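Render this sequence as a predicted structure.
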Amino acid sequence: MEVALSLPFLNSEMMFSLIYDNYEKDLKREIWLCHKNMDLSISEIENMPIRDRKYYIREHNKSVQIEKQRFNKKRK
């Protein structure tokens, strides 16, 4: 049976700046993807300090990478 793998959804190292042209669009995308992929409410994410959000994104992406490696090992 095929299993759908999760995907890393953001580069957690990207930091936002008010000088950045697409700041608002990218921030909204990050918030939406955190909500969608990590089952956090929008209000939880909006109230979360940026460093914490970046940490959770990084941890999510690490977890996805491990899941992907395990899946690939089983297929061999």
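Summary. The mean pLDDT is 80. The chain has three helices and no strands.
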